[in-house]
Amino acid sequence: MASVPGMLEERETAARVRGEGLREELVEALAASAAETTAVTGAAAEAGTVSAPAPVAGSIVPPWHEGLPVMVLSLDYQRILGVLEQRRSAGRQLLKAREITARVGLETSSAKVEGVRSKARRLAERGWLLVGASGAFSVGRRPVAVPDAGSSA
To answer: Exposure string (b/e) for 7-23, b if CB count within 10 Å is 16 or more?
Structure first.
């Protein structure tokens, strides 16, 4: 009969071997994906058909600049902007995070409101929105200086 520590050691060794195998497979898959992406991007650049990147869930918010389409933002950010655009066209400007949360169709629990507030703040930091002294948000875009964006010299 095998001892408990011996059985645990065997299982640990088997799990370590399995983990190394999975890690190798992941590295290979990532390398293949990167090579595929590079090939597609290179071919599109040669053909002159490079367009704005498609939105990705959980993606970063790029700094706003003239000519940057809203479609570069993920759908969550687009919805927030859409709510504020509708509000502006109705003649009202400012909305608090709780109101935005309700208007995008989410429950107004503290967690959901804080998530929307965080996204709205990120949009404001990147120049897509304006934030008032009261903490309410409104539509308004302003260019944001991007560090190391190149010199004018």
So the answer is: eeeeeeeeeeeeeeeee
Domain ranges in the chain? 1-51, 70-139
Taking the C-alpha atoms of residue 70 and residue 49, their distance in angstroms, rounded to an integer, is: 19
As a whole number of angstroms, the distance between CA 124 and CA 37 comes to: 31
> Which segments in the chain show pLDDT lower than 70?
1, 35-59, 143-153
Q: Dihedral sign, CA of 145, 149, 152, 153?
A: positive
Q: Please report the pLDDT score of residue 92 as a whole number.
A: 72
> Beta partners for 137?
95, 131
Residue showing tokens 């560090």: 147
69-74, Cβ contacts within 8 angstroms, sequence gap of 24 or more? 73/128
Q: Which CATH class is domain 70-139?
A: mainly alpha
Which residues are within 8 A (CB) of 142 and not within 5 positions of it... i.e. 6 or more apart?
64, 127, 130
User: Given this model, what pLDDT does residue 151 score?
Assistant: 45
